[in-house]
Specification:
The chain is mainly beta. The chain has two domains: about 5-125, Immunoglobulin-like; about 130-260, no CATH class. It contains one helix and 20 strands. Strands 10, 11, 14, 15, 18, 19 and 20 form a seven-stranded mixed sheet that branches. A five-stranded antiparallel sheet has the order 1-2-6-5-3, with no helix packed on it.
């Protein structure tokens, strides 16, 4: 998976209208649904009006991710250090939720050169899965089902209307929010180099209401905060066209997305 492509996915156009002052609004970096918690170790974004902030991102070729980018930091009460950062912009700080945070409400602060310029509340749950999407505007219509960033396991290409998945094919579902339910966990802001950091239990995947067989579930190699689930598209004749996909993990449901299956 190429860095620029994923960063574009992570930072894709979000039209949120936020107060110029505090509070800062925190959302899952996958679903972007407001008023929902995030999980320890998840990729999240803190939106605000950060006047004077640079537009910069950390490289994922050197891990763990830094806890400061050009003087910008994000701290959370209850964490042992500042959060690891993916990127900063004048309207958003993209970060990894520290793994040591207990479930509940925590005060979050955004700093520039050591000065607090934004403050808000982050709600943490033990697990809260979110599926990455690649089109649409979740902020514009909370009831709208987004097109998931689903890829093929065979060549890592996106599943699109022009290149739909086949029934029986293995797809890769990109998520975040598995919490600390991981075998061979990694440090804050880090990522495994292989597929050894599996989840302690398998999620359940449903395509058009049919449960799919899960082949793999674990942290995404090379990408801090990201989790992937590989599953077979159920071989049922009625599963075709734009179909809904749902993932649940330890009883917690992710946002529903759609993807495309060949006729």
């Amino acid at each position: 998976m190429k860095q620029l492509g994923l960063i574009a996915l992570l930072m894709c156009g979000i039209a949120l209208t936020l107060n110029a002052q505090v509070p800062v609004t925190v959302v899952s970096g996958a679903s972007f649904k407001q008023l929902e918690p995030v999980a320890p170790g998840a990729y999240a974004q803190a939106f605000g009006n950060y006047q004077g902030f640079p537009t910069a991102q950390a490289g994922v070729d050197q891990l763990p991710l830094p806890t400061e980018i050009q003087g910008i930091q994000l701290t959370i009460e209850g964490a042992t250090s500042a959060a690891n950062l993916y990127a900063v912009r004048p309207d958003v700080v993209a970060f990894i939720v520290p793994q040591e945070l207990a479930p509940g409400q925590h005060t979050l602060r955004v700093l520039n050169g050591g000065q607090v310029i934004g403050e808000g509340t982050i709600s943490v749950a033990g697990v809260f899965p979110g599926i990455f999407w690649n089109t649409g505007d979740p902020a514009g219509d909370g009831n709208k089902t987004q097109v998931g960033g689903i890829r093929r396991s065979s060549d890592n290409s996106y599943v699109t209307p022009d290149t739909p998945a086949a029934r029986g094919e293995v797809i890769v579902i990109p998520l975040t929010g598995q919490g600390n339910n991981v075998n061979n966990p990694v440090a804050n802001g880090d990522a495994p180099t292989d597929a050894s950091s599996t989840t302690t239990t398998l999620p359940r995947v449903f395509v058009s209401g049919v449960e799919a067989t899960v082949q793999f579930s674990g942290l995404m190699p090379g990408w801090p905060g990201l989790w992937q689930v590989n599953a077979y598209v159920p071989d049922e004749a009625f599963i075709k066209g734009a179909v809904p996909l749902i993932v649940t993990f330890n009883g917690a449901p992710a946002n529903e997305v759609i993807f495309y299956v060949a006729e």
